[in-house]
Amino acid sequence: MARVAAVTGAANGIGRAVAERLVADGYAVAGLDIEEVSSAGVTPFHCDVGQVAGHDQLIADIEDRLGPLDALVNAAGISIPQSLADLDPATYQRQLDVMATGPVFLARAAGLRMAARGGGRIVNVTSIHGTHSEAGCIAYDVAKGGLEAGTRTLAIELGRSGVLVNSVAPGFVNTRMSVVDGTNQLETDDFREIYQHRAKIALARASEPAEIAAAVAHLVSSDNTYITGARLLVDGGLAVTF
Fold first, then answer.
1. Which of 103, 136, 173, 191 is the most buried (most CB within 10 A)?
2. Are 72 and 6 in contact (CB under 8 A)?
3. How far apart are CA 162 and CA 240, in angstroms?
4. Model confidence band, residue 177 (pLDDT cutoffs 50, 70, 90)
5. Nearest to 168 by CA among 211, 238, 108, 231
6. From the candidates 27, 92, 140, 195, which is the catalytic residue?
7. Is residue 15 within 8 Å of residue 76, measured between CB atoms?
8. 140 in catalytic set
9. With a threshold of 0.85, does the pTM exceed it?
């Protein structure tokens, strides 16, 4: 019987790459998103991660259709840059709902079921922004840092039941979130000069979504038996330079 995984943000970017990688690895995959999920072999489920009231029923519906969950990957993300002067409560809260509160409650819904069965894997896709901040990104930074803290607590509370919980923290990734106000930040002169020419990123390039998916795939696999509460940086060496 195939292992079962649920992946949020599965319509695009990192979430889509994770869903497709897990299908290739033999999982039955539930793809959760507010947009259409169209990857071959992925069963779509409509989900606004920020609406936590329906998470328990959603996990029940996934397990009724595909079987008991072995893995949950919280990969959904949004970015709405605002300066401190322009920050408004609704925009700030929406980012926290999607990238912190929602994933925690989805992990709760899935993790308690996994714990009752004696095991499972949860991976939260966070960001280098969990520890490194940027002007105009206060909501994003708070959300990612908060989810990393939540990951550690989830790992503690679920560990004795055999559920391993970790985060994967990407740096620059070639997805549509790199496009800000119509400009792809990975194609700007500043990115080429600072991050590539001067090698602020040690590997001198952004990652592709599939490279993040490869890290996630290991952490949810049966090969991972003793990594929990960890933060795996997949940033090409961005955080080790100065």
1. 103
2. yes
3. 32
4. confident
5. 231
6. 140
7. yes
8. yes
9. yes
